[in-house]
Amino acid sequence: MNVPHTVKPEAAIRGPVLTFTGDPFKQAPDEVMVYEPDGIVAFGGGKITHFGPAEVIEKQLPPDIEITNYGPDSLISAGFLDSHVHFPQTPMIGAFGEQLLDWLNTYTFPMERRYADKTFASAVAKMFLNECLKNGITTSCVYCTVYPQSVDALFEEADRLGMRIAGGKVMMDRNAPDYLLDTAQTSYEESKALIEKWHGHNRIMYAITPRFAPTSSPEQLAVAGALWDEYPDCYMQTHIAENLEEIEWVKSLFPERKGYLDVYDHYGLCRPRAVFGHGIHLTEDELCTMHQTGSAIAHCPTSNFFLGSGFFNARLAMQEERPVRVGIGTDLGAGTS
């Protein structure tokens, strides 16, 4: 396998390389997996310029290019993409003993209060992103907190490291502690200011982030949809159908809507670039809507089992008649690493 190149290579790495030519959920893994026991990956201008067997590629590279050889005990692969993660939960990894709603009130919300302090937020952002890189995660879709300074802290460090990060300020104007609440108007204004400041800056992308339907009023969900209309190349991230008790709560808060996903769809939040965390208990109709709107699910297996939320059937979600886009997320605090 040789990648055609139009950009001059600046550096290269050598060692065993694993890559894929297709989706191993949809084809047999051995049909789409490419393993090169001694390969070279060369890059320049932020792009891969060459890839293939070392004995072939080495002859195509400039004689003075630096090639870092990682040796036969390593494995080179594409960076991993974490499609759903809460960086403020870094200090509370492994907080155990509750299901979702009690877990939020007992552990998560008190921790998020500390991110009003920019210095604290910056220290955690640095630790979080370093841990991502140690684990091969080069791109993440990240929840910050309601405080705009927590977003600045994350993006400043990601920009320094040259990482591709999508993230956003949590929008949350009800059913949470007073110290974490914004309003529909302030969430719009603060999110808009962050989009203007950060979206498209180097490798930074903004994700409009209503936490989940129970913590946003209808007015706030409406402004989230309006904001996305203004900046359609942003992402949108939120949670859906993680826990059965949560689903019943949404029904009581939005009795006029036909289901959980319909709440988001009503406010214009189902479309391409929408990333819905968990989606364990989505109905067949909701999966069809996901497919029709181009929305995606971020599957968080460690978190789902850690909090006893349930089993997400990825193959059902991706079935051929109406495939839904599915990514993998760590979620973070609701897990062990």
Structure description:
With 337 residues, this protein is of the alpha/beta class. The protein is 35% helix and 24% strand. The strands form two sheets. Strands 5, 6, 7, 8, 9, 10, 11, 12 and 13 form a nine-stranded parallel β-sheet that branches. Strands 3-2-1-4 form a four-stranded mixed β-sheet.
Quickly list its features.
337 residues; alpha/beta
Secondary structure: helix percent = 25-40%
Portion in beta strands: 15-25%
The tally of strands reads: 13
What's the mean pLDDT score?
A: 94
Q: How is the main sheet built?
A: 9 strands, parallel
- Pattern of helices and strands: EHEEHEEHHEHEEHEHEHHEHEHHE
Radius of gyration using CA atoms only: 21 Å
Task: Provide the structure class.
Answer: alpha/beta
Determine the N-to-C terminus distance: 35 Å
Label the overall shape: globular
* Count of runs of 4 or more consecutive helical residues: 12
Spans where pLDDT lies below 50 across 5 or more residues? none
